[in-house]
Specification:
Blueprint (H helix, E strand, L loop, with lengths): L4 H5 L3 E5 L8 H12 L3 E5 L5 E2 L2 E2 L13 E4 L3 H14 L3 E4 L10 H16 L2 E3 L5 E4 L6 E4 L10 E5 L2 H13 L6 E4 L8 H9 L6 E6 L5 H13 L5 E5 L13 H5 L1 H13 L1 E3 L3 H13 L7 E6 L2 H13 L3 E2 L4 H10 L10 E2 L6 H13 L5 E6 L7 H11 L6 E5 L6 H9 L8 H18 L14 H12 L4 E4 L1 H10 L7 E4 L2 H11 L3 E6 L12 E5 L2 H18 L7 E6 L5 E10 L3 E8 L4 H4 L2 E5 L4 H10 L3 H4 L10 H17 L3 E11 L6 E3 L2 E6 L3
Parallel strand pairs: 1-2, 1-5, 5-6, 6-7, 10-11, 10-12, 12-13, 13-14, 15-16, 15-17, 15-18, 18-19
Antiparallel strand pairs: 3-4, 8-9, 8-11, 20-30, 21-24, 22-23, 22-24, 25-26, 25-28, 26-27, 28-29, 28-30
Pfam families: ATP-grasp_5, CoA_binding_2, Ligase_CoA_2, Succ_CoA_lig
Keywords: ATP-binding, Ligase, Nucleotide-binding
GO molecular function, one term: acetate-CoA ligase (ADP-forming) activity
Amino acid sequence: MHDNLDAIFNPQSIAVVGASNRPGSVGHAIFSNLLGTFQGVIYPVNPRNMAVLGVRAYPSVAELPETVDLVVVVVPTAQVAAVVDEAGQRGVRGAIVITAGFKEVGGEGLEHENHLKAVVAKHGMALVGPNCLGVINAHNSVRMNASFATKSPSAGNIAFISQSGALCTAVLDYAMGRNIGFSKFISFGNKADVTECDLLEYLKDDPDTDAILMYLEDVSDGRRFIETARRVAWESKKPMLAIKSGTSAEGKKAATSHTGALAGSEAAYDAIFLQSGIQRVETISELFEYAQGFSQQPLPKGNRIAIVTNAGGPGIMATDALERHGLQLATLSDATKSRLKAKLPPTANINNPVDVIGDAHHDRYEAALDLVLADEGVDGVVVILTPQAMTDVLETAQIVPRASSRGKPVLCAFMGVMDVQEGVAYLRNHGIPNYEFPEAAVRAMAAMSRFSERLHYQRRHAAPQFDVDLGKVQQLIEGFLGEADSRLLHQAEAGQIMAAYGLPVLKNGLATSLEDLERVLDEVGLPVAMKISSPDIVHKSDAGGVMIKLKTREAAREAFTTIVANAKAYDANARITGVYVEQMAKKGVEVILGSSRDPKFGPLVMFGLGGVMVEVFKDVTFRLAPMWEISAERMVQEVKAYKILQGVRGNPASDVESIREAILRVSQMLTDNPQIQELDINPMIVHAEGLGSAVADCRMVIERRR
């Protein structure tokens, strides 16, 4: 963790450099906010004023009567580094730089930021910013609003960190309107020094923080971010939710493989979040919908959810949402249904969803909720209320906290705004999240269930290293590169590297002529598949350069002649090195396994539905290499094609274990060999359970290390 962060979040004394008497100025807003919240010593620093807001001012940090813990800097960009340097010389341990005009504007601004970073490093200070809103500690004996936000949030157990200061002000207003409090509220701007990793490390052990929300535009160090967030999730068991902006198509240029075309920077961020236990959300409202559930209710022990409602339609909507978001509609026990039948009117539905009927008062809700929560087959409950003329909304709200004391989460959807506002206010004041519509409540419950499931993952450790002759692999790569800086390797060459890593490469050979074909057929056997081998033809099928299920030598000879002729017709200038001959793989399910090397985060491993339709359906998932054992297992389970792998329409279950092992072998290969830039194994044919897999086609891009 970054040293001296406590000086930023729990200072005993603060100096505001650039504090101002001028209303509407940033220096005025920050000093005013601190005067209204901070119980420690505050010094305004302003060489042109004797006092600021009635407090004696000092010309410089050097002339303060004591060494403060924290300086908040609001001076012109060109003066910032000098002010921070002066503070460092005085022994100040922390700084928040509000001023903008640094690397975000480029040119001279970038030079100013680099100078500032050097100053901070020289003194070993912790610096938040520049170009930020500031920092708020809302939940401590040292309550502090060192920002220019117009509002100070109430105390709560949610921490919010953001690269965008403007977004922070909107979030504060949104949260206050919904009675959501914070432990820490941090705008960290350009992160010239303190990064998201440092903040996560600090919040991991912060006793006031139970959930962490993030708005990120980028991540500075992907591997460190993963390791830090993993400790937050699995050691401190604190849920993390993140919005990542900038979902552009950058990073997909000039890809020579399916994997490269599908990867891009967003795939890297998806992988980072999945591997670190962070849940990615799309909107601010979704962020806080989830946060309310996480911060106010216990986690469900499973995904079996019950619904209690006074209206059939919303109950059905909630049921549909359960299925969409991976939850199960809990099956109530016969004993529970018998007791419900005794407590509810004959017209009520005693199956899940439990419909207490539109004329229900609070006592009927209470009976149903008590019985459903007591059922061992129920992990959580969503309570839906639609305001009818006879509905006692407040009284119904009052029974929910009493009933929800069984260690199971209860989320409410008191639908509407005006008619239910009194009940909603009661729920929020008593730690029960309420959502305007059932679908939002179900989404939040699903997020809580996913996090609970992740906490119980097994094999959260690095995969075992496979025995590989790395020297031989490096010799192969250097030999293939020759004098070139980069090369596309087709199956004959790429297969040699993969075989060295124990990947299931089929028997194969390269036939350079019809006469040579006889030798290759002797080695490989029949039946075979045959493919053109040319460094100039990337997509062999498009060139008519693939023929399969060749069962006789005569058929193979005819195929050789046809494939070469097709390739020449496709590209008269293509260099043809021969025809690749490969043992025909047995029947199975086609999947794709590949990699693209992200320039910031390193190798991304991809798995998904294989064949020519991969770029159409995009049924793929990514992880960064190296990875945990559980990551490979989860990759296989996440794709929609997993249902096919489990066996459908009388087909046997596929050998999923062989896929998991192949993913881990590819991960090790990429980690060991940074020269591998892109990899496509498409298709890999997965046979029936216990019979393994086979690499049917592959290609690889290698590049000399610089």
